[in-house]
Amino acid sequence: MEKEQAIEKLEDKNLPLEDVKALFEMFCDDMQIAGQVAMNLSLRTSVYDRDKEKSPIMEELLVKLSDVEDMGSRWAVAKNPHTPSYILEKLSKDDVNLVRALVATNPNTPPSILQNLFSDEKIVRDGLSGNPNTPAKLLNILADDSDKMVRMRIAENTNASDELLKKLMEDSDENVCKAAEVNLSKRMKA
């Protein structure tokens, strides 16, 4: 099979995972194919239905993609909710800050790894603000961030305490206030 045919096949997110794996193995040293495999896995993964497409083959491909040179592939692995925590731990030490930032946003990243990422550069720390696994003590610190988007993600975070949400309802940015209010009212109804 030609490389162009493989790329065309990989553009189909409904291609059976067995076929995705076979193409990856056939062209394992080709970074363009690796990137296309990573994109295929991203397209079939839903942020709304995290169990969708979860399988041993998906996990195996994510593990293999975590070792490729292509930053885009590692980026896709770092954000995928099916990525095993031991791979997220490895990627939390990646040389590329965007890869580490996506590990910080991944809902599968354990709190211990998130704690370690808190001392990283700003782009990485910002990713912690929306992660429901981020420890409350870190959310409390991030709630004073000068970046309103960081405060907004905390206001929307399901792990933010009621006390923190009440504080954010007094924020200088009206969108942050509204997001905190909505989050708190959802809890009151539950």
Report how far apart the termini are: 54 Å
Average pLDDT confidence is 93
Number of helical segments with 4 or more residues: 13
Flag low-confidence runs: none
Structure overview:
The chain is an all-alpha fold and 190 residues long. It folds into 2 domains: 1-110, no CATH class; 129-190, no CATH class. 63% of the residues lie in helices and 0% in strands. The chain contains 13 helices and no strands. The protein has helices at residues 3-10, 17-26, 31-43, 56-65, 71-79, 85-91, 97-105, 111-117, 122-128, 136-142, 148-156, 162-168, 174-189. Helix 5 packs parallel to helix 7 (97-105) and helix 12 (162-168) runs antiparallel to helix 13.
SSE layout:
Blueprint: H1 3-10, H2 17-26, H3 31-43, H4 56-65, H5 71-79, H6 85-91, H7 97-105, H8 111-117, H9 122-128, H10 136-142, H11 148-156, H12 162-168, H13 174-189
Helix pairs in contact: 1-3, 2-3, 3-4, 3-5, 5-7, 7-9, 11-13, 12-13
Defining traits:
single chain; mainly alpha; 63% helix; 2 domains; 0% strand
Could you write a compact summary of the structure shown?
With 190 residues, the chain is mainly α.
